[in-house]
Each structure stands twice: as structure tokens, then as C-alpha cells.
Amino acid sequence: MSTYQNWVYTRNPFINATKGSLQKLYVIVSDHDSKLKRGNTDPEIDMLYQRFAPISEQVIALYDNWRNNEAMGRTATLKLDNLLFELSNVRIDDWDVRIRFVFDKRHDNYKTLMGDGRMIFMRGKKDIRIALVRQLAQRLGNFPQLSSLQTDVEAFATLLETTRDDQRGYLKDRRDALESLRQIRVEACKELFKNLSYLNYLYVEQPQRVTDFFKMELVRVVSTYTSNSVEEEDISENLNEEPDSFEELFDQEFEIDTSNTGGDG
Questions:
Q1: How many helices and strands (H and E) does the chain possess?
Q2: 3-state SS string over 42-93?
Q3: pLDDT tens-digit series, residues 8-59
């Protein structure tokens, strides 16, 4: 093995620059792609642009998918929380009154329908509360005189379940995009390094021109070598912690293995 294996000029600066921040990867890739595109009247630059375009398109698409699912997931979470608030503060009281209009609280049929009271609909895990609404709708189906109420409760149960499914779907899609982006990061950095190397060759007489093709404030070379695991200061987000913080936006009831964001949650 060469004594000079850690020579700074043989190290890919993009690998280190994007560790811990897929947002930084997106910015560097999209910026480089745009600058190549602007200069592609030069056949040499156009060659680099055409070679870089496929990986750039993948990075941008995955980044958009990640962030879009994050935004839609927040919206679905808010919608679900609002529905559960409505269940606790409006719906269950209304349903209870309508049941008691037909059956006295001491009647066995009332106990069949609401024997555990209202409180269990108001507190506890989200999935359990959603299941309670669905089960109430099923029990109401046994009482024709409450058919109108049964229709209302069943419709609300369906709305809750659909919203919950949407929320979980956005979380899974976001995780999948995030994991794909992580996997493609090194390949994107290799393509960036290829272009950097070719641009250094192309502008050997005007080396400063190479900097015109990169967002230099994000591509910093560490002056002292330590190890391949070195991570630079992260200017955007800690990727390893990020799935947990996003999960909190959804539901504290999910359990996420932060070492593998590809799970279903």
C-alpha cells in the first residue's frame, strides 16, 4: 500500500462534504448540474453535462420525493389529530346522547353499545381509539332503530382509518426516498469527483475557472487527515437523528429503528 494513500489530492472532497447532510448533497449536485448546463455550448462541458445528468436527475427526484412526503405527512398528521380531537370533544358526546335517546343508561342494550363509557374514546393510543369507533359502528348494526347513527359512526371510522393509512403511507414513502438518497450519495460524489478531475485537466492553464462549476462554500477540504470516518461540521441537519425528529411529527406511538429507515414503522 502506498505511503501516500492519504494525499489530499487523491481524496474526494464531496464524500466528506456531504456526510451527515443529504440537503447539502442536493444543493451541490443541483448547483453543479445548472452550471454545467449553462456552459454546455462548449463541447467538453456538454460532455460532462450529459454524463452527469442521469445521476443529477435521480438525486433531485429523490430529494423532492423525500421533502414532498415529509410535507404531506405533516398535513396528514394534523388532519388525524384534528379528527381525534373532534372524536373526543364532539362526536362521542353526540353519539352517546343519541343512543340514550333510544336506550336508558341502565338498559342492557346501552351497556352493549357504551358499557365502557366515553372516556376510552378520548384517551389512549390512536390506533386503539380508531378501532373503538369501528367496533361501535359494528355493534350499532345490530339495532335497526339506530341505523342512522350506525351510518354516521361507520363513516367517521372510515375517515379515521383512511387518514391513518395516508399518514403511514407518507411516512413509508419518505423513508424509502431517504434511504435511496443515502444509497446514491456516494455514486453522486464519484461523478462529481470525475467532473472535478476533468475540469482540472481542461483548465490547467486557468485553474481558477474550475471553481465556477461548484458551490465552493459547501465543498471544503479538511487540511489535516484523520480517518475516512471524519465528518465535517453539518450546516443543515443531522441525518442520523432526523428520522426520529420527523417521526415525532407523526405519532409518538410508532417505534423507529434509526439505524435503518427502510422499515414500515
A1: 9, 0
A2: CHHHHHHHHHHHHHHHHHHHHHHHHHHHHHHHHHHHHHHHHHHHHHHHHHHH
A3: 777 889 998 998 899 999 999 999 999 999 987 899 999 999 999 999 999 9
Q: Are 228 and 240 in contact (CB under 8 A)?
A: no
Q: What is the dihedral of CA 97, 102, 107, 110, to 10 degrees?
A: -50
The string of pLDDT tens digits covering residues 126-155 is 999 999 999 999 999 999 999 999 999 999
Q: How far apart, in Å, are the Cα atoms of 183 and each of 59, 156, 177, 178?
A: 10, 41, 10, 9
Grid cell for residue 212? 465556477
Q: Which of 112, 115, 111, 97 is nearest to 152 (CA)?
A: 97
pTM confidence score? 0.71
User: Distance between CA 53 and CA 30 in Å, rounded?
Assistant: 10
Q: How many CA atoms lie within 13 A of 176 on its CB side?
A: 11
Amino acid at 74: R
> How much is the mean pLDDT over the chain?
83
Expressed in percent and rounded to 5, the helix, strand and coil fractions of the chain are: 70, 0, 30
- Written as nine digits, the cell of 225 is 487527515
Q: Which of 160, 142, 146, 158 is nearest to 96 (CA)?
A: 146
